[in-house]
Structure formats: structure tokens, C-alpha cells
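Quick start: what a row looks like.
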Amino acid sequence: MHSVHPTPKFSIITVTYNAEKVLEDTIQSVISQTYHHIEYIIVDGASKDGTLSIINRYRSRIHTVVSEPDKGLYDAMNKGIALASGDYLCFLNAGDCFHEDDTLQQMVHTINGNELPDILYGETAIVDKDRHFLRMRRLSAPETLTWKSFKQGMLVCHQAFFPRHTLVGPYNLQYRFSADFDWCIRIMKKARTLHNTHLTIIDYLEEGMTTRNQKIPQRKISDHGKALRADWNRGASCMVRDPCSYSPVGEGI
């Protein structure tokens, strides 16, 4: 009997705040995907620039748009989780893009059999504002990923980490800089199958490394350590962006 290849639905979530300079490329990257089992969700923090005008230009291609004040980046991401209905979740930040127009199609084609893995993951490329390739992310995805892999750092960029919706809980807002680090670990502890797609999935925009954000990593490292210790003690249970500015801090770039 001929087996049917799975066609999972992807919930792509973009959190924005005053992102008019970089958002359009991200939106076009999503709506240009050749794989069509997608819902696109944008959670905006009541932007004061032209962000909403750009969103409205593509409104018919975006499943859900929310624009309202929030308590920071991870609070906005929790709103995205609550709105999502797909099999897999992906957080694609404003300024970042899928590596190719058929990236999601390629990811699905790497799945063997008809059972969906609990997590899909892959590599991340660093690009400039003109979308020219600069280098691969310094921390590369391991061949076999477990939650203990993150003792070495966030080896898989948050944007290139696609968990099953059924495994996802909210971000822990007590971690100002490392809620995504903690979130990924908690999900991996629940996961049975973590599938390496062996694909470059995300183009990460290098721009946005402000002077303020370059001062954050030491505090972020401390936050990572706190999250890792908590998850280690709990038993089975990327890139980090500053929730105040919504611009990249660059985990392991």
C-alpha cells in the first residue's frame, strides 16, 4: 500500500516593534514559500513607525495580525503561541528570512515515513542588509541534538528550531534574555524524535547590533546559566533578542 507523505501545517510567527526597515523582506520570504500549508501570524507591539502600513500592504496573505502594547518580546511571543494552530511553530524575527523560497518544502521532504518528528532543526546563515551571504553561524547544529547539547551554548538558532505545537508551552518571562534558551530545553526534554534536516533554514540579518545590545551578552550569559541550572535540576521536563529593543543580541554569531 502506498504511504502518504506527511503535509504538516507550519505556524510562522513574527514579532515586531518599529520594524519598518526590515519587515518587508521577512513577509515576502514567508508568502513566497512554495509549500502552502502555512499560517502566518504577526504580533506587533503597537509600532509607531510605518510597520503597520507594511503589514497592511500584505494583509490578505497574513492569517492573523495583532497590534497592541505588550510586556516585552517574550510576552509577545506567548501571544503568538496562543494564536497558532499549526503542527509546527517557527519564530521568524523581523529582518530574518527563510533561506530559499522552497525551504519549508525541502524540510518536509527530509521527513522519513508518515510520522511527524517532535522537532525539526537545521542551520543558520548570517547575511547583510542586501541579503548577501557573510558566513554560517559560529555555533552549528549537532548531528544529534538533545537538551544536554545546550550545555555548549544555543547550538541551534531559535529561528531554525521547529517544535511540534503539542510540546510547546509559554516562554518563562522571568528570564529577560534567555527565555528562548529555557523554552527550547524544556521542549527537547519532552521530545522523543529530534530530526536534523541537514538544511540551511534561516538567513539571519546581521544588522541591528547596537552599542547598547553589545553590552548585554555578559548579563545574557548569566541568564543562560540560570536557565540551564534550573532545567538541569528540573529533570525531564539563537539567537536571543533584547525584549526592550527587539533588535538582535546575537547568540553565538
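That is the whole record. The chain has a mean pLDDT of 85. Residues 7 and 108 are 7 Å apart (CA to CA).
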